[in-house]
Amino acid sequence: MLKGTVHKYGANVDTDVIIPARYLSLSDPAELAKHCMEDINPDFVKRVKPGDIIVATTNFGCGSSREHAPLAIKACGVSCVIAKSFARIFFRNAINIGLPLLESDEAPDNINAGDTVEVDLAAGTIRNASTGKVFTAKPYPDFMAGIIAAGGLIEYTKKRLAEAKR
Amino acid sequence: MNLVEKILAAHSGRKKVSPGDFANVKLDLVLANDITAPIAIREFQKLGVDKVFDPDKVVMVADHFVPNKDINAAEQAKLMREFCYRREIVHFDVGQMGIEHVLLPERGLVLPGDVVIGADSHTCTYGAVGAFSTGMGSTDIAAAMATGDIWMKVPPTIKFVYHGQLGTWVSGKDLILYTIGQIGVDGALYAAMEFTGEAVDALSMDGRFTMANMAIEAGGKAGVFHVDQKTLDYVKPRAKRHYTVYEPDKDAEYARVIEYNVTKIEPQVSFPHSPANARPISQVGNVTIDQSVIGSCTNGRIEDLRIAAQILKGKQVHARTRCIVIPGSQEVYLDALKEGLIDTFIHAGAAVSTPTCGPCLGGYMGVLAAGERCVSTTNRNFVGRMGSPKSEVYLANPAVAAASAIAGRIVSPEAV
User: Fold this and answer.
1) Residue that finishes a domain, picked among B259, B291, B306
2) Which residues of A lie closer than 8 Å to B, measured between beta carbons?
3) pTM of the full structure
């Protein structure tokens, strides 16, 4: 069970504001985390606590393919991101590196900044502890669930490579 | 099946694929650059293999922060270079390199019918030659470098039909900005965009590259064109291996068909901070600019520079505007030299740089201060994209960017 305080954003949060390109000469997640959300919310890194949850509306993570974006969010201690929809490259990247994402049309409209939210990843449920309302996230396709169950794409690929050798 | 479905079916050993199917797809080329390769290499090393699946099918291009902009950038380029040297991977460095999406088609490394993935969102550019190409992150690239394949969900395809004839100074850039303005930055989310109609048939290859390049700006997974005589004329002298031309079936299915009559479309300008904020040039109003950038994977090809030079010839860049011209590759640079375009730019008071992504993503070679405005032929105008989060970027075609450099404010090419 994940539990954390909500940081709320709107539509089309792009990867340039999640981690500006001026920091792309870095690739250490801990260094990237120091600049997470800097151009949309300069106070974010001061306020974010381990376990906190980002909630946004549509097309979260649009723009560049930079994996630095989900890496920075994860390294800040953010436990998951809930949105109405995600940009596709960001979606893949987050699953690949083990940052849980939950897609829900209703939850973002019923969660405010500062609310406490509980997420049961196995059941796909999102509970706003501040209001008591419960929402169900869209389930992952089986194929992706396999990657998540393996612990990310690298572990999944390791298994595939080992099987191919046999 | 439509074009995208045919390519993906052929690369996954299936007779038929449909939108929503998951497929393991064989790859013709895997790409990374100096920003995304370091993470891909770190993840690749966790896989416990030493060799890539095929060193001729992995390409790394040092283009974003190269020639090195600072010590960190130098370390990243070095890491990538050494990884490539040790495995004899195709690698383009300073002196050979160009902006990856200008360079790879030019070198015949991406061909019709290919499936290409790259750790760069603008990898969708190669749809212009009838390939299925899409951007992914570094970890996907790491896995693909080891296995030579990747999982994909077959996207639904939206077919765009552009009727009519383009007016003077109206280009592929204007068609794609107009389209994004109509459908929004998530208008093609998870979908492939198929560009058709007599207006795109009439476009040059350079104009098609520009359109395919910005499919990602509508959330698209790919942006594809049908292969025609222009494609073959471009590809044939460059190809060094076999390729297959796919055509959509007559009864191909599409998620949506969107038709535009583009005869009356004006040059478009996308206002901050979204490519979807497109306005016709006649409705821009008085926007003074500090900088004009002509280049990038979107508009750094020879046709783009010819148009800019045509406007700048014999004129002077405004005294309070910096104009920066960046040819997309060494070949483009040499052609521009031979044609006298570089001479024109320098005499007009513009700065000309070696190929690099540089200013497009606020890397270097034209970073903006707080309060500054730039008109740019690049692809994104997000908050802070080209520098300070308090700066502004206006997206436009090369003719508008060149004219605006002369006027010191955003104007139509007809105004100068």
Assistant:
1) B259
2) 12, 14, 16-17, 20-22, 24-27, 38-40, 58-59, 62-68, 70-71, 85, 87-89, 92-93, 96-97, 141, 143, 152-154, 156-158, 160-161
3) 0.97
pLDDT for B323-381, tens place per residue?
A: 999 999 999 999 999 999 999 999 999 999 999 999 999 999 999 999 999 999 999 99
CATH number at residue B63: 3.30.499.10
Predicted confidence at residue B318, as pLDDT, reads 98
Average pLDDT for residues B177-190, to the nearest whole number? 97
Distance (Å) of CA B274 to CA B48, B332, B380? 42, 29, 7
Residues B141 and B117 in one domain: yes
Residues B20 and B136 in one domain: yes
Is the CB of residue B93 less than 8 Å from the CB of residue B81? yes
Distance CA B108, CA B236 (A): 8
Query: Does residue B241 share a domain with residue B144?
Result: yes
Task: Give A-chain residues touching B185 at CB under 8 angstroms.
Answer: 12, 59, 62
Q: How many residues does chain B have?
A: 416
Asked whether the predicted pLDDT for residue B89 surpasses 90, the reply is yes
* CA nearest to A62, candidates B42, B363, B379, B193: B379
Identify the domain boundary among B259, B285, B303.
Answer: B259
Domain hosting residue B111, numbered range = 3-259
